[in-house]
Please model this.
Amino acid sequence: MRFVFKTRYDQDIALARHGGDRFWYSLLVLALLAAPWLLPEYWLAQLSFVFIYAIVAVGLMLLAGFTGQFSIGHAAFMGIGAYAEAYLATRGWPLAASLACAMALAAVAGVVVGLPALRVKGMYLAIATLSFGFIVEEALARWESVTGGNAGKSVPAPQILGYALDSTERFYFLCLVCVVGSTLVVLNLLRAPTGRAFVAIRDSEVSAQSMGIQLARYKSLSFAISAALAGLGGALYGHKMQFISPEQFSLVQSIDLVLMVVIGGLGSIHGAFFGAIFLIGMPQLISLGKDYLPAAIGQATGLQSVVYGAVLITFVMLEPMGLYGRWLKVRTWLELYPFYRRGMFKRQKSFQKSERLK
Model:
């Protein structure tokens, strides 16, 4: 088992805890860079979807996992980013400018939605964000001159300096750069005083306010950053699908996003990536498993929803920290083997019921 001996205060805010982390993260980056030459085109496309949803998950994790503000209408921000990108891309805007405008527009919408968070929280905040999601979906369907209405809107391939990213490999690298950049921004933000203010608000708003933290400012900022990342994910999603319609950003999509961060593990950037892998990989596993199920079950409609519901209930009841929490336990078990104890995780379970993780 590794013990980190800290000799500098900078080690508490370092991105990597020790040399082992730096080695494994470097190896992961090299594997992702080599993926276009190692994976078939289909799986490379699925990995691009993982990156897109990971960007959205990182933003939602910042809002829900680190600030304690839940949103059940986050797909609306994806829709705003996707339609803004489609509108600007068809008019020949450079990719960097159109992505920045899509993120800015989503961030402004996030501030507007964050205003109710100043006075309500918990279930009432969830209802407010849900209502915003319905409003945006209806606006996208009605504003036919810009969005195309229910008929949808086509999205051209992204271009950088006249170089079209119209292949799976080229678009994969674009998604890789965006997800790495977004993750580094959020990680550095969490190490800064702003991120510590977010965590203080999550733990106790009264205590945070007593320490001089401006709740209105930091809650609005958290919503804006989270919405901007969702807008970036929506813009990339539109380019990947090459066609968008209001139904793609409905309540079902918002529930999938919440499911992604809860199952991945609230309060952890790793959990955002685990959740994105789950959201993209689970339909593939269900499709593979249908062949081994009876026809009455395998061909039944709604099988995916039933599996998602069962998995969510299982994690909420047995593993509140999600996939990342389970990985931490497995890693600890491997590090302590064969000296682990049968009840070594009971104290951690009681800690999860404390105010800190609410």
